[in-house]
Amino acid sequence: MRTFLAYFQNLRFKQKLFISYMVVSIIPVVVLGMFSYHQASSFLLQQAKQNLDGAISQIAETINYRAKQHEAIINSITQNVVFKRIFISNDGDFPVLYRDYVDPFFSNILDFNRDILQISVFTENQSILRGEYILPLSLTSDLKWANQRTQSKETQWNIKNGKLFATRPFVSEEEAQLGKAPAVLFLSIDADSLFQSLDDIKTNAYGILILDRDGHQILSKNMHMRDELPITSLPSAQLKERIGSFTMQGADYMYITADMAEPGWKLVYFTPKNGISVDAKSIVSATALIVLVCLAGLLLIIWMFSNTFVKRIIKLNKKMMIVENGNLKIDVSSQSRDEIGQLTNRFGNMLVNINTLIEEVYQSKITQKEAELKALQTQINPHFLYNTLSIINWKALEIDAMEISQITNTVSRFYRTVLNKGRDFIPVRNELENAKDYMHIQSIMHNYRFDFICEVDEALLRYDMINLIFQPILENALEHGIDKLRKGSARGCITLRGYRSGDDLEFCIEDNGPGMSQEMAVEVIQRNSVGYGLKNVHDRIQIRFGQSYGLRIESALGHRTRVFLNFPVYTAEEISRADSE
């Protein structure tokens, strides 16, 4: 994202304007196109579902009609008086009835109904068994309906080994409960012929179930489904809606159900939701065409506007380039009152003001340089100070005033180190000597009322540091620490410690004064607090070495104060080399 923004920032204004117009224009067109596509797709999907629902309902009616035909055949046999006399009452001359009535009737049914593969009557009456039309009931012992003690007078549809068959028991005129049926009509039906209309479904992958009244599976058909689903294990409550959905084996499916009243079946069609395809090519083509037409019109409009809009900016930019090359005397003005005209006129006014200021500043600089020269001429030469101190020292030795001589030499060394020939860096050794001389002078001024302890690792003496760092901190320790001690309290003590920590030099100046609040400890470093001057030391270190270095104060009211300072290990040669690079 940052790379793109950087690239965009470096583009010419005309290109930015062009891209901005294009983005602002394309977004609503694309959003409207996507919305239209979504709405049209939803509409087509709903239409597809309705068409599919109509097809399934039509198929269910076709199967229901064929089931009615088979039901009519079953009724014509089980309700026939002659057949009841034979199979229930066992009345009449059976050989004659079979020859003249049963055999021709069953043969005609098979001849005119090619989808009926077998028609038989299973009975317990062994005396009337004949060929394939009348068979012993014992042959059906492995069938479900044969093991039921009480048989319903309704037709039962069953499937076994992939074959569909219908059964109905013969009942008496009084419809008395006969216990185990003495005779049962059996029709074996060609399932492919009965359900051939299922092949009219044109979806890519789907499954079909035919369920009976009890929810038992009569037929299962799987067309191009990836996995065989245990659809019958679904709770029947999930299949009660006309059109619904269910989830199985991690996939979402849509189903459509249709009832077949005559056989009491339910047709269940199911297919993966992602398998219902919608042909949206026409929508995509229309949307793309609209977008292209809009873009063509927008390109023309953008070209016209950008040329008109950017032309004056290019002209102003050329004049700015002339000014950049040093020519400040050109005339820049515009008669236009829009923002670009205002910008042009203000740039022209700015050039006029710059030319005026150049003249004024040039004169003021000359005056300033003259004043500085005079001020330098009046400054005291440091050598005059050193010579004066040498004379005082010589006079003190003449009168044998050794303490005056010592003080004079100490002051001389102190200022010689402070001035440091104008250099900003000084060896740690010299800065420590300067600190000791300063504290010696202060000790004399304070009538030797405090102790000064210096504990610095010898290894630190070979490095360099910024000049005049310790003196302001020691001065604060005296003024705000030692001088604040009550009379009769402990003797004042200031300790200067130095050690190396990794690649840094760290120093700590500690006094046993009354301390300060933590708020004051933060303030004296962050602000130019009157009487402290520690912010200047802190800023000098950070300007040279960065924000991770500087001063840090630890103190509390009624306790001693510690001032920590740190900076990296370096020598003046390294600093000089880094500055030159």
Question: Your description of this structure?
Answer:
There is one protein chain. This protein is an alpha+beta fold. 20% of the residues are buried. About 2% of the residues have low confidence. A hairpin with a 4-residue loop joins strand 9 and strand 10. It is built from 14 helices and 17 strands. Helix 8 runs antiparallel to helix 9. The chain is elongated, with a radius of gyration of 56 Å. It has a domain of 141 residues: Histidine kinase-like ATPase, C-terminal domain (Heat Shock Protein 90). Keywords: Cell membrane, Kinase, Membrane, Phosphoprotein, Transferase, Transmembrane, Transmembrane helix. It is a multi-pass membrane protein. This is Two-component sensor histidine kinase. It is found in: Cell membrane. GO terms for molecular function: phosphorelay sensor kinase activity.
Number of strands: 17
Contiguous uncertain segments of 5+ residues: 370-381
**Judging from the principal axes of the Cα atoms, what is the shape?**
elongated
Query: For the residues shown, what is the average pLDDT?
Result: 76
Descriptive key words:
581 residues; alpha+beta; Heat Shock Protein 90; five-stranded mixed beta sheet; five-stranded antiparallel beta sheet; 17 strands; 19% strand; HAMP_dom; phosphorelay sensor kinase activity
